[in-house]
Design brief:
With about 280 residues, the protein is of the alpha/beta class. The chain is about 50% helix and about 15% strand. It is built from ten helices and seven strands. A seven-stranded parallel sheet has the order 3-2-1-4-5-6-7, sandwiched between helices. The termini are far apart. The protein binds NADP nicotinamide-adenine-dinucleotide phosphate. NADP nicotinamide-adenine-dinucleotide phosphate (NAP) binds next to helix 2, strand 2, helix 5 and helix 8.
Length: about 280
């Protein structure tokens, strides 16, 4: 039974229940006193962003105002370092270790992103590996791992993206200009990258009416360990000499191209493969 004398007690109980939420909101506000860019509330998830092109993309999208989920397979320290850099520059980021070749791990990656940031607007399916050998020498293990990470892994990431990216968002998957260059020893790797171009084109159509643009980004030769490992300085210089600009691409060159697709001006580019390669093809 309630009467006038119960009122103050109920008010006190209600206030006590609300207090933690108010305090939490206050804490959140206290962390965001810096002037926020227009896209402050947008969220990007970049797979394979502990180093290389993915790390440059995570940093660039954070600079553009996205809260970013960084991902690694093994190099937790590097992933944590990318998050620290983003935070030191005033951005928001988390890192999640998840092997993209494991569909359960990919689901958890997206769930952890949602727990931290509430949703996702941009997904960059970037995690990838490259093992080179002529057909006669390619091992079952290397072939399988490339298919598992590059093709199946990217499929698992794009499937989650198709389910979760908010209207007006962007989905970008990493192909490679090797799908045009078609050099010896690159056959199985190139095939896993060619799949990305088909994935992007078909997914763009499936997401009709949602204003989500889906594209494949196809870099040329980029100065990361994926490209340089196992090559002599002479071989690397030979690739650089083949580009009209006479240099390798840098991870930031690709990050800038990805950021352009993510910008408001990039929305009409949809279902395409965008070759960002300094003209090597
Ligand atoms: N570099 C080039 O010349 C070039 C050219 C065309 C296309 N690409 C494509 O661009 C993408 C990035 O290449 P990159 O050159 O930046 O490579 P990278 O420097 O070797 O970095 C690879 C990134 O992918 C992560 N990764 C690898 N396997 C993974 C897995 N199973 N699950 C989750 N993350 C995984 C790595 O994490 P850990 O640090 O934990 O290992 C790392 O963050 C790849 O898809 C590649 O095919 C590169």
């Amino acid at each position: 039974m309630s009467g006038p004398t119960d009122m103050p007690r109920r008010a006190v109980l209600a206030a006590a229940a609300i207090a933690p939420a108010v305090l939490a909101a206050g804490a959140a506000r206290a962390q965001s006193t810096r002037p926020a860019p227009a896209s402050r509330s947008k969220v990007a998830l970049v797979t394979g962003s502990s180093r290389g092109i993915g790390a440059a993309t995570a940093r660039r999208l954070a600079r553009d105002g996205y809260a970013v989920t960084v991902n690694c397979e093994k190099n937790r320290d590097l992933a944590a370092g990318v998050v620290r850099e983003i935070e030191a520059a005033g951005g928001r980021a988390i890192w999640v270790q998840a092997d993209v070749s494991d569909p359960g791990a990919v689901r958890r990656l997206f769930e952890e992103n949602e727990r931290a940031f509430g949703g996702v607007d941009v997904v960059v399916s970037n995690a990838g590996i490259m093992r080179l050998a002529a057909f006669r020498d390619m091992t079952d293990a290397d072939f399988s791992r490339m298919v598992d990470v590059n093709q199946k892994g990217s499929f698992y990431v794009l499937r989650e993206a198709a389910r979760r990216v908010r209207d007006g968002g962007r989905i970008i998957t990493l192909s490679s200009s090797i799908t045009q260059l078609r050099s010896a020893t690159y056959g199985p790797y190139a095939a896993t990258k060619g799949a990305q171009e088909l994935f992007a084109n078909v997914l763009a159509k499936e997401l009709e009416g949602r204003m989500i643009s889906v594209n494949a980004m196809a870099p040329g030769v980029v100065n990361t360990s994926l490209f340089t490992d196992g090559k002599t300085p002479q071989q690397i210089a030979g690739f650089a000499a083949r580009t009209p600009h006479k240099r390798l691409g840098e991870p930031s060159d690709i990050a800038d191209s990805i950021a352009a697709l993510c910008s408001a001006d990039g929305g009409w580019i949809n279902g395409q493969t965008v070759f960002a390669n300094g003209g090597i093809v």
